Amino acid sequence: MTDIVRLDQDFGRWPELLDLILSSFAYMNGRIDPPSSGLSLTPEALQAKAAAEIGYVALDGDRLAGCMFLRPEEDSLYLGKLAIAPDYQGKGIGRQLFAIAEAVAKERGLKVIRLDTRIELTGNHAIFGAWGFARTAEKSHPGYDRVTYVEMRKTLA
Q: Model-level pTM greater than 0.85?
């Protein structure tokens, strides 16, 4: 069981967090188009993201094992940059983080968690489906005339 810790400005491990995101998203390189927005992140951008959003990291001892960022919206909580270190995938860390996201949504009176996932990443669609998410829209990135990602939503009880 890992510890889940809320990110704050004292975190100080932004380069390591960036490495975690890049390594966990590396399997997407060359597989999705357009490329992941994670590739344009910097440690400074992550620090700013944590100030503007609600970020969490999963720690196994001192090792970063996963992360997520949550952004309250008018009618939902957006779940983004859910990343699990490759050697920790399949060990329940994503579910632990998602349980925190559900708690945050409920605390804020939000009844829906929303996320976007790339059209090509059908394995992610299946995982999120198993967590209770349903596909609600197919969308395109600016400049693309084909579907590039799907929106998925989970309504909380």
A: yes
Mean pLDDT of 58-82: 96
Q: Which two tokens stand for residue 138?
A: 């197919």
96 CB contacts (<8 Å, ≥6 apart)?
1, 2, 4, 58, 66
What are the pLDDT digits (tens) for 43-57?
A: 999 999 999 999 999
**Exposed (0-12), middle (13-18) or buried (19+): which is 93, by Cβ within 10 Å?**
buried
Structure tokens at 82: 């859910």
Are β-strands 63-72 and 77-84 bridged in parallel, bridged antiparallel, or unpaired? antiparallel
Residue 73 above 70 pLDDT? Answer: yes
**DSSP type of residue 41:** -
The 3-6 sheet, strands edge to edge? 3-6, 54-60, 63-72, 77-84, 112-118, 149-155, 134-139
Tell me the C-alpha distance between 66 and 56, whole Å: 8
